[in-house]
Amino acid sequence: MARLRLALAQFDFAVGAVAANAAKVGDLIAQARSGGAGLVAFPELTLSGYPPEDLLLRPSFLAACDSELNALTAATHGIAALVGHPHSEGEVFNAASLLREGRIEVTAHKQALPNYGVFDDKRYFRPGHETVTVMIDGVRVGLLICEDIWQPEPAAQAAAAGAELLVVVNASPWDNAKRVEREAVLIARARETGCAIAYLNLVGGQDEVVYDGASLLVNGDGSIAARAPAFVDALLWAEFDPAARTLSAENWPVAGDDSIEATLYAALVRGTRDYIDKNGFGGVLLGLSGGIDSALTLALAVDALGADRVTAVMMPTRYTSQLSLDGARAQAKKLGVDYHVISIEQTYESFVTALTPAFGGKGADTTEENLQSRTRGVMLMALSNKHGRLLLATGNKSEMAVGYATLYGDMCGAYAPLKDVYKTVVYKLSRWRNAQAAMAGEGDRIPAAVIERPPSAELRDNQTDQDSLPPYDELDAILERFIEREQSQADIVIQGFHADTVRRVVRLVLLNEFKRRQSAPGPRVTTRAFGRERRYPITSGWR
């Protein structure tokens, strides 16, 4: 039996960039043909990018996708190309069309429309009702789209129609549990059907969602034949042996460190880089406080964009410690970024002086602390405007969960790389990044003193975060149970946490929804991110 040679296009296809996406598809079809591929596959909704959201409500957008799809048929002589696109025929479908010999041979419609987590497919699409199979170089191939493989029926339909190989095109976002879940599903489908599976996934950042690629080859017996690295753009070559129902990879890129810290760090870097570049910003700006959150954000920004595109600003007051000043200066020098020190003491005092008559004799409290943060926000936004560099917010998920952040202060920013990263994970990532630097002989990317110091907002004398919050290991454990796992307060207490602490943490989470609604977007990397995924009402009587 003849073998089928495949090319899987694990690349980024940007939302809305229809003409550019089509041009990339055309180039990759040519590469695949010259490499002897019988089939080249592209990710879910290649032409529109994923998720296109309300662009799908615009007839002109759908027409542009349709026009580019038809134009691509001219590139498919001597090769078959499976291209994802929105398909409008009165109703709109999430589709993948097989282009071959200058025409659209067949179009598959996504049958299982996810409507959970970050997915909103049912808002835009109608479901398909059958699995499409085609013959390619003597092999019966079933064509599935993303969620279709997570349900048993579409794959079973393909097998019943004689499919030997399933080609699954995806836009499956990454989170810290996705690899295990994804592989378990693919292994189950292969064992149920006896079909081998070529699983192709999109790669790249799109607003709050990050796609990891990490495409897979699964043999008909459920064994994993190959894993592509995460967050790497590549044309992946493979061969399918129909007699053995096995797939083999040809010179796939090899992942280095595939630990959870390495993959998470890569997700944050990719999400940040793509957000900045796709929105056309020349560089970024951030407040560098001498604390661990801004230090990790700076390291991420430099890894994402290069030092020449990053500006860091230290804005001290009387409460800023020498450790913070030294740590920020040392890191900025080490990483080679543009660095400025702008004292806000005088500006802050002018605000206090102007406001004192209207404060009505009330004593100092958190108002004055927040005013320091807001003074910094004004400064940073002015620098962002003047130099055209996007401001990064540096807060983490623990802080955003309980509202330990100042509206129009440290929450200022257009993108927040650590928004979905708990504080305890911030420490893990910082130590991991330093370990990688040490192995490369580079020295610390984040000053060790910054990692080891007690965290502090430095808005008053001798302040630490733990004056206002439980220890972060305890706080994050409670938050993870309440947010990711949706556990009740009673369930959390049963697991050994103090009832008063649990009640206090949960109250803060629910109370601060209004702040989170005004926060910058950031890359989703957990199974329950604030933003498009976790949507709680601001006004609610439930406690």
Structural description of this entry:
- This protein is an alpha/beta fold and 543 residues long.
- The protein folds into 3 domains: 4-251, Carbon-nitrogen hydrolase (Nitrilase/N-carbamoyl-D-aminoacid amidohydrolase), CATH 3.60.110.10; 261-465 and 512-517, 3-Layer(aba) Sandwich (Rossmann fold), CATH 3.40.50.620; 470-511.
- It contains 17 helices and 19 strands.
- The strands form 4 sheets. Strands 5-4-3-2-1-14-15 form a 7-stranded mixed β-sheet, with helices on one face.
- α4 (152-160) links the parallel β7 and β8.
- It starts with a strand and ends in a 26-residue tail after the last helix.
- 48% of the residues are buried.
- The mean pLDDT is 95.
- Catalyzes the ATP-dependent amidation of deamido-NAD to form NAD. Uses L-glutamine as a nitrogen source.
Primary descriptors:
543 residues; alpha/beta; Nitrilase/N-carbamoyl-D-aminoacid amidohydrolase; 3 domains; seven-stranded mixed sheet; six-stranded mixed sheet; 19% strand; elongated; NAD+ synthase (glutamine-hydrolyzing) activity; glutaminase activity; ligase; ATP-binding; nitrilase activity
Question: What's the SSE blueprint?
Answer:
Elements: E1 4-10, H1 18-34, E2 39-41, H2 59-72, E3 80-89, E4 91-100, E5 103-109, H3 121-124, E6 132-136, E7 139-145, H4 152-160, E8 165-170, H5 178-193, E9 196-201, E10 203-206, E11 209-212, E12 216-218, E13 224-227, E14 234-241, E15 246-250, H6 260-278, E16 284-287, H7 292-305, E17 310-314, H8 322-335, E18 338-341, H9 345-355, H10 366-387, E19 390-391, H11 397-402, H12 423-439, H13 448-452, H14 472-484, H15 489-494, H16 499-511, H17 513-517
Parallel strand pairs: 1-2, 2-3, 7-8, 8-9, 16-17, 16-19, 17-18
Antiparallel strand pairs: 1-14, 3-4, 4-5, 6-7, 9-12, 10-11, 12-13, 14-15
Helix pairs in contact: 1-2, 6-7, 6-12, 7-8, 9-10, 14-16
